[in-house]
Amino acid sequence: MKILTLMISLFSLCTAKSLPNFILIMVDDIGIGDIGCYGNNTLRTPNIDKLATGGAKLTQHIAASPLCTPSRAAFMTGRYSVRSGMAAEARIGTFVFAASSGGLPQNEITFAEILKTEGYSTAIIGKWHLGLNKERNNDFHHHPLNHGFDYFYGTTTTHLRDCIPGNGSVFVTGLAEILKKLFAIVCLTLVTLIFLNYTGHVKTPWRLFFYFLLCIIIFMVPLIFYFWNFRYFNCFLMKNYQIIQQPLIYENLTQKCTKEAMRFISRNKFKPFLLYMSYLQVHTALFASQDFRSKSRHGIYGDAVEEVDWSVGKIIEELKRNQLEENTFVYFTSDNGGHVEEISSTGEVHGGWNGIYKGGKATCWEGGIRVPGLIQWPGVIEAGTVIDELTSNMDIFPTIVKLSGSIVPHDRIIDGMDLMPLVLGKSVTSNHEFLFHYCNAYLNTVRWNQRNSTSIWKAFFFTPNFYPESSEGCFNSHVCHCYGDFVTQHNPPLLFDLSRDSSEKYPITPETEPNFYNILKTIQHAREAHQETIQVVDNQLAWSNVIWKPWLQACCSSWFDFCYCDNDEELGDELNQTNI
Question: Which of 17, 63, 284, 363 has the CB geometry, 3.0–4.6 Å to 368, for a possible disulfide?
Answer without folding.
Answer: 363
